[in-house]
């Protein structure tokens, strides 16, 4: 984990009301707040979205929530989210990669957060053939 205990930026099924929020996060968070992730766009997946970095697009920004795990729950939340997203640190062939990226809060603050983005080959395929989530907001789609 590299020792950093960052909040998580969630943008799909882990958002409040999403099908994975209840078992993975409900009762294990200290706070959550709306946020945007600049330089990232969302693509449609099979029942969930993929986040893909788009540094070349200055207007790119995914919409989601910053989730702050409650004291005593951080390691369990991290483990469960890594498992859900098919992420194993350093493993080739990960479905997603977990990256630290700056999220923007409604009051203009910047908070570094963990975000799961589509891994390299998948991200390239989505950029080439994928279908963007309208407005880069999964809950509004």
TrEMBL record:
It comes from Streptomyces sodiiphilus. Residues 8-139 form the Gamma-glutamylcyclotransferase AIG2-like domain. InterPro entries: AIG2-like_dom (IPR009288), GGCT-like (IPR013024), GGCT-like_sf (IPR036568). It comes from the Bacteria. This is Gamma-glutamylcyclotransferase. Gene3D superfamilies: Gamma-glutamyl cyclotransferase-like (3.10.490.10). Pfam families: GGACT (PF06094).
């Amino acid at each position: 984990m590299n020792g950093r205990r960052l909040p998580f930026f969630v943008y799909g099924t882990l958002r409040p009301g999403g099908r994975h929020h209840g078992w993975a996060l409900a009762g294990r968070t200290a706070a959550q707040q709306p946020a945007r992730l600049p330089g990232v766009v969302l693509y449609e997946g099979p029942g969930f979205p993929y986040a893909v970095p788009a540094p070349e697009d200055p207007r790119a920004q995914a919409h989601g929530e910053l989730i702050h795990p409650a004291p005593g729950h951080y390691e369990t939340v991290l483990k469960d989210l890594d498992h859900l997203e098919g992420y194993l640190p350093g493993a080739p062939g990960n479905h997603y990669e977990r990256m630290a990226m700056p999220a923007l809060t409604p009051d203009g603050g910047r908070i570094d957060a963990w975000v799961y983005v589509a891994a390299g080959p998948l991200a390239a395929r989505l950029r080439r053939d994928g279908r963007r989530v309208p407005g880069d907001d999964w809950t509004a789609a």
